[in-house]
Design a protein that fits this description.
Layout lengths: L2 E4 L2 E4 L3 E2 L5 H13 L4 E3 L7 H11 L7 E6 L6 H15 L4 E6 L8 H13 L3 E7 L3 H8 L6 E5 L7 H9 L3 E5 L11 H10 L3 H10 L4 E3 L6 H8 L8 H8 L20
Parallel strand pairs: 3-4, 4-5, 5-6, 6-7, 7-8, 8-9, 9-10
Antiparallel strand pairs: 1-2
């Protein structure tokens, strides 16, 4: 496993995403993911699966200090009291004393970001979280947040069909990393002819090429999701080959501004 190392953070470059997983399915998936080598788990308050994630960790019998856990505060109440309640709930449900990376899940202009981040930083200083970050912040909002507090991460949709150049540049400017969610474009990369051709050359699948392309970039991690053990293993088995500079450029050239996650409450995105 390779690691992304920025801001004093050392995070496994491939994590296990749990979006839309709940209950026993989620617990079993987490336990399976840990058994095949994942050590980075991603969840969120709004997923309503933090207890199931904790159950999967217990089933795995892997010590907490060997894991990197990310969770997120939902956007409905980003007041200082709101984020404190959010973190208290996440800590209880995840059965842990501290979160490794705690993110603002989506921006919400109804709450001053300075107040939100100040409260989060205070809780971080107390040890309830190790690092703080944001998610779904376009570059201008990220710059605003990074001017207020040390932001370790911006988690955004990122895959071969969505370039995210401005987000990546802003994160690197501030020594932060980007975590790519939906890194396989919700399965769309599987049959991509360019990625398949590269995969055949390296003895890998198109999905593995897409994940390697992400993790070969400076300060980028990825959190693919799968309920199937064989796909979990496939998604993490990407560190025994490397794409050439030309191959990296070919994958970058696939970008077409295809955004798959764009709810009504989303901010104004960067132009792609």
């Amino acid at each position: 496993m390779e690691f992304v190392k920025v801001h004093g953070v050392s995070v496994p470059a491939v994590g296990f995403g749990t979006f839309r997983m709940q209950g026993e399915e989620c617990a079993e998936a987490v336990a399976n993911a840990l058994s095949v080598g994942y050590r980075h788990l991603d969840t969120a308050e709004i997923y309503e699966n933090e207890e199931a994630v904790a159950m999967g960790i217990r089933e795995s019998r892997i010590a907490r200090d060997r894991l990197f856990i990310t969770t997120k505060a939902w956007m409905d109440d980003l007041s200082p009291d709101g984020v404190r309640r959010s973190l208290d709930g996440s800590l209880q449900r995840l059965d842990t004393d501290s979160i490794d990376l705690w993110l603002v899940h989506w921006p919400n202009r109804a709450f001053p970001i300075a107040d939100t981040l100040s409260a989060m930083s205070e809780l971080c200083a107390r040890g309830a979280a190790r690092w703080i970050g944001v998610s779904n912040f376009p570059s201008a909002m990220f710059e605003e947040a990074a001017a207020i507090a040390p932001i370790a991460c911006n988690q955004v949709e990122y895959h071969p069909y969505l370039a995210q150049r401005a987000v990546l540049a802003a994160a690197r400017e501030h020594g932060a990393f980007v975590t790519a969610y939906a890194p396989l474009a919700m399965g769309r990369v599987t049959d991509d002819p360019v990625l398949r051709e590269m995969g055949e050359r390296h003895g890998k699948t198109a999905s593995q090429v897409a994940l390697r392309w992400l993790t070969q970039q400076e300060a980028v991690a990825a959190i693919p999701k799968s309920a199937r053990r064989e796909h979990m293993k496939e998604n993490i088995d990407i560190f025994d080959f490397a794409l050439t500079k030309r191959e990296m450029q070919r994958v970058h050239a696939l970008a077409r501004g295809e955004r798959l996650i764009d709810p009504d409450f989303a901010p104004e995105w960067d132009e792609e």
